[in-house]
User: What shape does this take?
Amino acid sequence: MPMLRFDPGGSSAADIYKLMIGMVVPRPIAFVSSLDERGVRNLAPFSYFMACTADPPVVCFVSSFRKGETPTKDTLRNVLATKEFVVNIVSEEFADKMNLTSAEVPPEIDEFELSGLTPVASELVKPPRVGESRAQMECRLRQILQIGEHPGGGTIVFGDVLRFHVDAEVLDGYKIDPDKLKAIGRMGGPTYVRTRDRFDMIRPK
Ligand SMILES: Cc1cc2nc3c(=O)[nH]c(=O)nc-3n(C[C@H](O)[C@H](O)[C@H](O)COP(=O)(O)O)c2cc1C
Assistant: This one.
């Protein structure tokens, strides 16, 4: 295998980003709902996202710094102000609506209205859930960790999951049927994956 080597200092930040998002695939998507201090509803997808621990249940996502005068994204500003957010899992059926919310729009725009997605009241936090999403996690801010200071860097947001909501149709006990959840993931650039092509492998004892 002829391997090429790249060191972070020797390539542009944009090229390093391409390597990272091409290499770390597929990435799950946290579709985050939040509220600003006045109650304006915000939605945005984040594919720097993962489940961190189960006991306590903690998830994290990264809000990258924007170019320009306001580097902090609305989601991060809201989470820092209110300490609450919801992670909604994205299914194939509303992928296009999710995409609409990734547009850079002013903070006073209600992104539920922008996307046509349905706000459903949460039970333990103020930000609403996305009604079309078959699995949602109500979260309270646990901790943030800032990495770097400029575009390319960002802030990791850790949240404690206070309550899980799962569509009864996709559940068998606590097991989620991926064929019914129909979650999507993100590859590099504008490419996404479905979660239909799978195989099982039993771990050795
Ligand atoms: C599928 C997808 C994944 C994304 N992942 C991230 C991410 O992990 N971190 C990030 O800062 N922006 C990510 N973005 C871009 C944000 O969604 C976008 O900047 C959005 O406008 C932020 O909204 P906000 O200002 O309302 O928080 C992603 C966009 C898409 C479409």
